[in-house]
Design a protein that fits this description.
heterodimer; A: 426 residues; Cytochrome Bc1 Complex, Chain C; B: 258 residues; mainly alpha; 7 helices; globular
Chain lengths: 426, 258
């Protein structure tokens, strides 16, 4: 594919490209890259996530230039950034709210994948790499939240690291090892800072693998059927570059609203109180994007077969991510898109409500009705993935699939006759 | 068959209603909802009212600063209240700051300069606690951002020193406050009518002083709000134009393939 420039490119670029075909690769992957012609706006969230990751790294690097990761200075250094560093407040609010935006994008992106069966063959590894990005993002966000060293920072670090003490025999040793001492303290803050700086670059590497896997077979689409020829696809540029730019601008409006007009809406007021190991906040609540896992963790209030409740809670909370990882094999239906799955379509929305309910449970103190709702929602989460998904694939009668993307989008006149066949599972 | 089912349904509904009522009642025993105030810094065009901030600073200086520090503020920051450079210098000079060590190796006191942090009333938290019945008065420079309800909460708290309801046992050495969690607050009622004399002739009622000092403290915890709001409006205009241009371009480019 070398030397395919459309007459652009100077002699120097052609000389370089002959030896290092970077421009040719860009041409192939960003310009000509054949993309289904029927992608909806739900397909904007992949590139949005990538852009948001870059914004987080850039704002993060500038914050790191002013931040001091020591228990006695961290809180004041953040205030220094807010008050005395030029546009420090803008940079910090962009970073803090950017984390929330990144998770909102990731979750929409993943629910889109669940709705349209984007995880099905041959895109299993693409999906699994995505789940890995989510796990890394959770770890990064958690450690980043500890850095301002406010009350919630300190107590979130204490609660979450203490989870490892649930591991039998070696648990307490692991916790001491993680803390670098016998409580959350200065060594903990230092290592969290080092890891918080490192992990985003690992995410970036996994994103690259995610893109390689994506470009192997191209994007899934709302119909969930494969591209069968040139009539089904359009080049990425200019069609999707302009659509992504438009979507980006709309997204930035929402992001800017939070940064400029509600910068602390998504945060906890307690985190403007300096960390105090002698005083526990009334309610220790994680950021909104971790609430469903937190709800699952707290919902297991009983032991089973002698396994203590705390350990079970940890297993089920982490298990929710593991279940996502193996979704490609839990879903036995050969039809990707929910548009052609009359029953799954409803179950998908029940799952959305279930996860929102878990979020509500996570945000409220575990008393009375909250506990019951949390336990039902936790049970349903697992029932959805471990029972309903595998069984439904066997008993559901999917609606007939269109013969091709072009036929469905442009009407039968333009459609090249192609035999309708269920997708995928070769 | 039916009557028992119906009875069950009624029982469940009654139970749920009961739970709801219990929850509401327990909330009633806690703190009442915060009355919403009008603040000059509300909304997307909101800015701090400089006259209110200057009155609020006077309240802080003459009343609050006896116990509460504002450790994140420097005298130079007071220029944002509308004071001139000379006024800031004069305000700073009324306080004593510790400097040194000098050539004899001694720390010494001198009048404060605009570049100094505003000194607090106590040398450290332990000293603050022992002078105040065992509880150190919290620093005020982030108080508005560090409380649920923000300015409305601090305002309600300053106006919330009501007589304790019948049967409520106020802990000895504490004071009843309607809006303080669990109602026993260590701070005695700080404001009383006419406690300060405002230079601009504003009548110093408790609600007026509370409103002014909260405006000052809101600025102290978020000094860049004015700039944030101003820049935000421009960013919004820029992005709205961007959305329009990109949408038009998208329509034009896609016209051929639709």
């Amino acid at each position: 594919m070398a030397d395919v420039h459309r007459g652009s490119g100077s002699r120097i670029i052609r000389w370089i490209d002959h030896r290092l075909p970077f421009m040719a690769m860009m041409q192939h992957e960003l310009y000509d890259y054949p993309t289904p012609r029927n992608l909806s706006y739900w397909w904007n969230f992949g590139s949005l996530a990538g852009i948001m990751l870059v914004i987080m790294i850039v704002t993060g690097v500038f914050l790191a230039m002013q931040y001091t990761p020591s228990a006695s200075l961290a809180f004041d250094s953040v205030e220094r950034i807010m008050r005395d560093v030029n546009y420090g407040w803008l940079n910090r609010y962009a970073h803090a709210n950017g984390a929330s935006m990144f998770f909102a994008i990731l979750y929409i992106h993943m629910f889109r994948g669940l709705y349209y069966g984007s995880y099905k063959a041959p895109r299993e590894l693409l999906w699994m790499l995505g789940v890995l990005i989510l796990v890394l993002a959770i770890a990064t966000a958690f450690m980043g939240y500890v850095l301002p060293w406010g009350q919630m920072s300190y107590w979130a670090a204490t609660v979450i690291t203490s989870l490892f003490s649930a591991i039998p025999l070696i648990g307490q040793g692991i916790v001491t090892f993680l803390w670098g001492g016998f409580t959350v303290g200065d060594p903990t803050l230092h290592r969290f800072y080092a890891l918080h700086y490192l992990l985003p670059f690992i995410i970036l590497a996994v994103v690259l693998l995610h893109l390689i896997a994506l470009h192997r077979f191209g994007s899934n689409n709302p119909l969930g059927i494969d591209m069968k020829g040139p009539q089904d696809s359009i080049p990425f540029h200019p069609y999707y570059t302009i659509k992504d730019l438009f979507g980006l601008c709309v997204f930035l409006l929402i992001y800017a609203f939070f940064v400029f007009y509600a910068p602390n809406f998504l945060g906890s007021p307690d985190n403007y109180i300096p960390a105090n190991p002698m005083q526990t906040p009334n309610h220790i609540v994680p950021e909104w994007y971790l609430l469903p896992y937190y709800a699952i963790l707290r919902s297991i209030t009983f032991s089973i077969l002698g396994i203590p409740a705390k350990l079970l809670g940890v297993i089920f909370a982490f298990g929710s991510l593991f279940v996502l990882l193996i979704v490609p094999w839990l879903d036995t239906s050969s039809v990707r898109s929910s548009q052609f799955r009359p029953i799954y379509k409803w179950l998908f929305w029940v799952l959305v409500i279930d996860v929102l309910a878990l979020g509500w449970v996570g945000a409220n103190p575990p008393q009375g009705i909250v506990v019951t709702v949390g336990q039902i929602a936790t049970l349903y989460f697992y029932v959805h993935f471990l029972i309903l998904l595998p069984v439904l694939g066997k008993i559901e009668r999917p609606r007939p699939l269109p013969s091709s993307i072009a036929a469905a989008v442009l009407g039968d006149a333009a459609g090249v006759a192609a035999p309708a066949a269920p997708m995928g599972r070769s | 068959m039916w009557p028992t089912r119906l009875a069950k349904l009624v029982a469940v509904a009654a139970g749920a209603l009961g739970l709801l009522l219990i929850q509401q009642q327990s909330q009633a025993q806690e703190t009442p909802p915060l009355p919403q105030q009008q603040w000059s810094f509300d909304g997307i065009f909101g800015t701090y009212d400089k006259a209110a901030m200057q009155r609020g600073f006077q309240v802080y200086k003459q009343i609050c600063s006896a116990c509460h520090a504002v450790k994140h503020l420097y005298f130079r920051d007071l220029a944002a209240l509308g004071y001139t450079e000379d006024q800031v210098k004069a305000i700073a000079a009324t306080d004593q700051c510790t400097d040194g060590p000098n050539d004899q190796g001694q720390m010494y006191q001198r009048p404060c300069r605009p570049s100094d942090p505003i000194p607090g009333p106590f040398p450290n938290d332990k000293a603050a606690a022992v002078a105040n019945g065992g509880v150190a008065p919290p620093d005020q420079s982030l108080i508005v951002k560090a409380r649920d309800g923000g300015p409305d909460y601090v305002y309600a708290l300053l106006n919330g020193f009501t007589p304790a309801p019948k049967g409520f046992q106020v802990v000895s050495g504490k004071y009843y406050n309607e809006y303080f969690p669990a109602h026993n607050i260590s701070m005695p009622p700080p404001l009383s009518d006419g406690a300060v004399a405002f230079a601009d002739g504003t009548k110093a009622t408790v609600p007026q002083m509370a409103h002014d000092v909260v405006t000052f403290l809101a600025w102290a915890s978020e000094p860049n709000l004015d700039a944030r709001h101003r820049i935000g409006v421009r960013v919004f205009l820029f992005l709205i134009v961007g959305v329009g241009i990109f949408y038009a371009a998208k329509r034009k480019i896609w016209a051929a393939v639709h």
